[in-house]
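RETRY 2/3 - previous attempt timed out on the joint model. Re-submitting the same 276-residue input unchanged.
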Amino acid sequence: MSSVIGIVFIAVGLAFDLFGCIGLVRLPDVYNRLQAATKCVTLGTCSILFGTFLVVGFTSPGIKSLLCIIFLVLTSPVSAHAIARSAHRSGIKLWDGSVVDRYAEDKEGEI
Amino acid sequence: MKSKIVLFILAFLVWSLLNWVPDWQHLVVGVFVSIFVAYMTGDLFIQRPYVLRHPLRYWYFITSYIPVFLWECFKANIDVAYRVIHPRLPINPGIVKVKTSLKADTALTFLANSITLTPGTLSVDIDREKGILYVHWIDVKVKDIESATKLIVERFENILKKIFE
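RETRY 2/3 succeeded.
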């Protein structure tokens, strides 16, 4: 029974990972792509890992996949934040259709 | 010193889980590795160890932060998936400023991470002196600082204030 639920989790996670990859191709600039990459890929991969845990139970790979969920949730937003900040500070403009950029207004003249 | 002890316990726990099922050889090596890690990097880990002593904070963390976070994370995924597979790509991006009244390091980290994993927002930079976060928003609804704060930050700020301050 729990292996069936686990396979459902893995399927849902694969679907979200696929949407994240489509987002990486379709969205216009680096910031929007980061949005798709962090959100979809975090929950998609966590879902795959949790499904793996449900299938294999409290064995050595199951415990490791639970640990991976914790580290993934903690580190993926941090790396997205670092990439976005360094991209903006190295002068990459927002997409032409963007409506507002308060960060550039405030950091005018600062390098 | 307290920070080092907390880090030792945490490192030992992670080591035991990585070496599941633990036997005594793994545990002895784990004690040495954890002591080394705690000795080298212990001072960087926690600034205010006394915060860990309140059981009520763990209770708030489990009962009010985690359900809200999981629900928002799920909504964020549905939202991004909808925008990505919609043929006309309904995005309206921009970077807005929001205010926060949190001061502690851990609370700010958790706030930025939560903002990144909630629907449509991605924290770009933080100004600690003024308490300002710069947030990339995939669908900008309001541009001024007050209403953006209300829409983005307030869900998490009250919960995090109870847990970490």
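Chain B has a mean pLDDT of 84. Closing ticket.
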